From TrEMBL:
Source species, domain of life: Bacteria
Name of this chain's protein: Glutamate aspartate cation symporter
Keyword set, alphabetical order: Cell membrane, Membrane, Symport, Transmembrane, Transmembrane helix, Transport
Membrane-spanning intervals of the chain: 12-30, 42-70, 82-101, 156-174, 201-219, 225-248, 289-306, 326-345, 357-380
Organism ancestry: Bacteria, Bacillati, Bacillota, Bacilli, Lactobacillales
GO cellular component: plasma membrane
GO biological process: dicarboxylic acid transport
Membrane topology: Multi-pass membrane protein
Signal peptide: none
Listed InterPro entries: Na-dicarboxylate_symporter, Na-dicarboxylate_symporter_CS, Na:dicarbo_symporter_sf
Entry's localization field: Cell membrane
Organism listed in the record: Loigolactobacillus bifermentans DSM 20003
GO molecular function: symporter activity
Primary localization: membrane
Length: 433
């Protein structure tokens, strides 16, 4: 029995194998409609399974966490800290993208006429609809008129708002609310168990998703934009290791320890290009890692709307890349204005499908780049999306730890024990209560 466990391949390695096989199969069946028709449902079903469990987990964990917190003043303080932290980190991410873009100048060597064009019609229609809904509308829509309608649409922020109020209500009625608290506590345990079952299908889902992408666009599509891809990924690595590393160090945390603990979830997010795919396990794992349930259940889901560090890096870098490709020189003041515009549009369009691309579409006109320019990088958007999604997952996990530490709700002894056990077992912990 022990020997069987020793040779068992961890989830992270299974996902990487699925990713590699997807790349190979996708390239072998490039533009083969039959192969695409077979591969696409595999990935889609896996993502749908994840989406099915995300909201039940968020609601049940958040209700229990807020009810146990039970203090509206404390909640307000946590919310304020969280939003300030998110704004600072996304601004740093935007600034880093601009700095690296100015230093490396990835667009200068590009012949814009040689790049393959991909239709951006779907993004254009989304951008047009989203452009009428600025930051003010996002604030107005925080309060749902119908909770079940928001639940059906998957609107995370209105759902979080109602759930927070519901959790505070349970805390306010005292012993009478215990039956509800027990119900949601049990619901969370059930959903985590279902999550573990679904995660067994992750390698297959990743195989289908990446296989479909490569079969549609082909590996050859990478060649003209290889430098941009390289610079984008290098910038994301710098942001995690240097910026997040320094922020973690200020709070006496270790970014590499965090990366070790959430490595499977980061690989999953990278492979699927979906933050939702990693969200259930991140919530579960961060609680085991010492972050209080109330903090992690509030910070992580909120971060998936307001703390998209990877997306911020991509937006500023891509905008500068396109300007360079069109030989448009941007002064320092114009780049500062671009940063401000990106800060506003990225928040105003949070939660819009294809948000990063839509933000760019709404922004590049302000620096003189034609909207058609985005067609040149649309073909590799999925490949860049994999990297920025992984950065978003790491950023939100770190945010939960920092906010918990600021509230003295980070159990360091528990964190050290979990990390030690995690390393010893190579990440294959037994699922325990």
């Amino acid at each position: 029995m022990q020997k069987q466990r020793f040779f068992r391949i961890s989830l992270g390695w299974q996902i990487l194998i699925g990713l590699i096989l997807g790349l190979i199969v996708g390239d072998l069946f490039y533009q083969n409609k039959t192969a695409i028709a077979i591969l696409q449902p595999i990935g889609t079903i896996f993502i749908n399974l994840i989406k099915m469990i995300v909201l039940p987990i968020v609601i049940s964990c958040l209700v229990v966490g807020i009810a146990k917190m039970g203090d509206i003043k404390k909640l307000g303080r946590v919310g304020g800290k969280t939003l300030i932290y998110f704004e600072v980190m996304t601004t740093l991410a935007l600034a880093l993208g601009l700095v690296v873009g100015n230093v490396t100048k990835p667009g200068d060597s590009i012949n814009i006429q040689t790049l393959s064009k991909v239709s951006i019609t779907q993004y254009a229609s989304t951008a047009k609809a989203a452009s009428n809904h600025g930051l003010g509308d996002i604030i107005m829509n925080i309060v749902p008129t119908n909770f079940f309608e928001a639940l059906g649409k998957g609107d995370m922020i209105p759902v979080i708002f109602f759930t927070v109020m519901f959790g505070l209500g349970i805390a306010a009625i005292g012993k009478k609310g215990k039956i509800l608290l027990d119900f949601f506590d049990a619901t969370a345990d059930v959903m985590f168990k279902v999550t573990n079952w679904i995660m067994k299908l992750a390698p297959l889902g990743v195989f289908g998703l990446i296989g479909t992408t490569i079969a549609q666009f082909g590996l050859a599509a990478l060649k003209p934009l290889a430098l941009f891809l390289l610079v984008a990924y290098a910038t994301m690595v710098i942001f995690i290791v240097v910026i997040m590393g320094l922020v973690a160090r200020i709070w006496h945390l270790n970014i590499f320890e965090l990366l070790t603990v959430i490595r499977d979830e980061v690989v999953l997010a990278f492979s699927t290009a979906s933050s939702e795919a990693a969200l259930p396990k991140i919530i579960e794992k961060m609680q085991k890692y010492g972050v209080s349930g109330g903090i992690v259940s509030f910070v992580v889901p909120t971060g998936y709307t307001f703390n998209l560090d990877g997306s911020a890096i991509y937006q500023s870098l891509a905008a500068l890349f396109l300007a360079q490709a069109y030989h448009i020189h941007l002064s320092i003041s114009q780049q500062i204005m671009l940063l401000v515009v990106l800060m506003i549009t990225s928040k105003g369009m949070a939660g819009v499908p294809g948000a990063s691309f839509v933000v760019l579409l709404a922004t590049i006109g302000t620096i003189g780049v034609p909207a058609e320019g985005l067609a040149f990088i649309a073909g590799i958007d999925r490949l860049v999306d994999m990297g920025r999604t992984a950065v978003n997952v790491v950023g939100n996990s770190l945010a939960a730890m920092i906010i918990a530490k600021s509230e003295n709700e980070f159990d360091e002894p528990m964190s050290k024990r979990y990390y030690a056990t995690f390393k010893h077992d190579h990440g294959k912990l037994e699922e325990t209560k």
